[in-house]
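<instruction>
Derive structure tokens from the sequence
<data>
Labelled lines for chain and fold:
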Amino acid sequence: MVRLLVLATFVVILNETILVNAIPRLMDSLHITEQSAQWVSTAFMLTMAAVIPVTGWFLQRVTTRQAYAIAMGVFLAGTALSAVAPSFEVLLMGRIVQAAGTAVMMPLLMTTLMIVVPEHDRGRVMGNVTLAISVAPALGPAVSGLVLQLGSWRMLFVVVLPIAALVTLFGLRKMDNIGEPQVSSIDWLSVSVAAFGFGGLVYGLSLLGESGDRVGLGIGIVVAGVASIAVFVVRQLKLQRTGVPLMDLRTLKHRTYGLSLALISVGFLAMLGSMILLPLYLQNMRGLSPLETGLLVMPGGLAMGVLGPTVGKLFDRFGSRPLVLPGSIGMVLSLGGFTQVSMTMPYWQVLGLHTLLMVSLAATFTPVFTLGMGALPPHLYSHGSSMLGTLQQVAAAFGTALVVTVMSARSGQLVADGVAPAPAALSGMQLAFGVAAGLTVVTILVAAKLPGRIAATEAPEHDSAAEQPIGS
């Protein structure tokens, strides 16, 4: 079951970044601006951030097979709509539908894994899960670069559609139900506030990466999003005492889970930030094609995937510290190395730094995912995985907006001072990588505080609430 869910999750999450290299093709084919074309990725993250908070409630109400069928069915509908989209608006709608299906898959995978896999074996299994959660976004640009050599941007969806359909059919034949559905109510005020808060935060952060008046609009939307999230938190704290919260914040009372959440968020920020900067550097400054760019970053993504199961086995044997601490240091070193990008930096050096970053993330994500989720009691698994997924999207949007804003501000200032555009853009990119490297220093501090294994005081307890049936 876990293998099936990993495969399905890999297919759907791959689509989050698969259009990164297709932006120029979309602009020419649909006659849209670069800012509009970016929405094919922004809308995906926006929908994920808005839908994921509801998945904790949804997964408790339906069986595992129902959740799988609904998630993959919605994803297939969105993929088909995107493939035949006659206009940009229809393509955007297809991406939103795709994201709604994708938003269910990762919490479904994580929740099922924590229920069916014994604790002593979770590291190895979580290593395979890392392939879906972390490697799929990293491989998206590489895969799209290869597919775009075969035809138009529609090929990206045409290729995915039959693969996803086969995975869906095979999964439904082999999938078993885990537990029984739990009838529970949902607080629609929490749903609306969460959608506006998390979705607004992602949207506002994406606007910060643009120039002109939209930066001011982005700041306003970010502030409104943060205010809505504050209302959401207050509402959940009240519901924890009197009803059923949409997202149970008692997950944050578990110290190991909270630390894991912080480390994963910063890690995704660094990964998505570098994924935005590297294609800009390689294509706009060094003149590489989308295919050449994809091939250059592919080894790092593949290394991340290949190492996932190995890292999981090492975690089962030695615990987290021998992996997470070196991984965090590797992230800082690789991003620090990217601050030295130039018009003459050898491509093997770019390849080496990117591979170091991906390997470091592999060494970090698998143990941290396992530790964080393992520290929660069973009745909080679905809530913990939905919170994890939501913050991943927010961190991804923040990382993208941060590096683009820093790069644009620095290069704009230098151009105003009389510096030529190319050196100014290069300096802006160096500073953006430097800011990302500075933020990842936090991961070293957090890694030092993580336990090697789940402490006895944080081992999943089975209180009365924990005995409630889990629907997935």
Q: What stands out?
A: Residues 252-452 form a domain with the Growth Hormone; Chain: A; fold (CATH 1.20.1250.20). Residues 381-416 form the longest helix (36 residues).
